[in-house]
Each structure stands twice: as C-alpha cells, then as structure tokens.
Amino acid sequence: MRWLRAPGVRDVPEDIRTWSVEGADLAARDPLFARALAGVELDCVADASDNALERALGHRAFIHGNLHVDGRLWGTVQPGMTGAPRAWTERDRSAVLRVRPLLAPLVAALARARAPSALIVAGELPE
Fold first, then answer.
1. At 120, is the pLDDT very low, low, confident or very high (cuts 50, 70, 90)?
2. Cα–Cα distance measured from residue 91 to residue 29, given in angstroms and rounded to the nearest whole number
3. Residue 94: helix, strand or coil by DSSP?
4. Which pLDDT belongs to residue 114?
5. Are 113 and 105 in contact (CB under 8 A)?
6. Domains of the chain, residue spans
7. pTM, whole model, 2 decimals?
8. Which of 24, 27, 51, 82 sits CB 3.0–4.6 Å from 34 for a disulfide?
9. Tell me, which fold does domain 14-116 have in CATH?
C-alpha cells in the first residue's frame, strides 16, 4: 500500500509496483534487506542520492521500519521523502517504532491469508 501526501509527490515507478519474486541473492545486493532479515528494527537514511536502487525507486530519504513477527520479516513500513534529503529526528524514529508492533501482526496475517504461494523465502514456506 502506498500513501502520498499530495498529488504532486512523485510515486514509485509503475513497472516496479507489481509483485515480483526477488532473486535469492537479494540480501547480498541490498544491505537494508539484509539488516531487516537479521532482525534490525529500524534504519534511517537521510540521503540516498548515491544509491542506484533508491534513485530508481524515487527515494531520497526514508525510514525502514521492519515488521517482524516471531523473528520472521513480513514487511517494511517506509515513510520517506522523494525530493530532498531529511535528517530524521528522534520523534520520527519513535513514531515508526510505535506503529511497528501494531502493523506487523496485521501484515503477517494478511500475507498468510491472501498470498500463501508468495510467501516463499529462500525456498521455504513459513509455518
């Protein structure tokens, strides 16, 4: 799900909004994904202008609030900026940390109910 603050905010490009299976090497290619898999709760990126993937996504600054349930990564809530860098404040971090425990079980339940075949990670289906 995406929410844009205003109609003029640049959205993620259409060609990467649809579901696609990532390669098994995603954690090797994407350090934030590797950190999320390792259980890191939150990563704050103030300026992603030097990252080709983030440029392709239209991201400039963002927070990855990783959604874990029982040690398994189910998703990421990612508030962000598209036009300029941003120094994330403690208030910003706290807001994301507060919603994580509320969102994580909902995202996991929705994923389990709606797309069980899409839940294969590294060749294993979650219990």
1. very low
2. 30
3. helix
4. 72
5. no
6. 14-116
7. 0.75
8. 27
9. Beta-Lactamase (3.30.450)
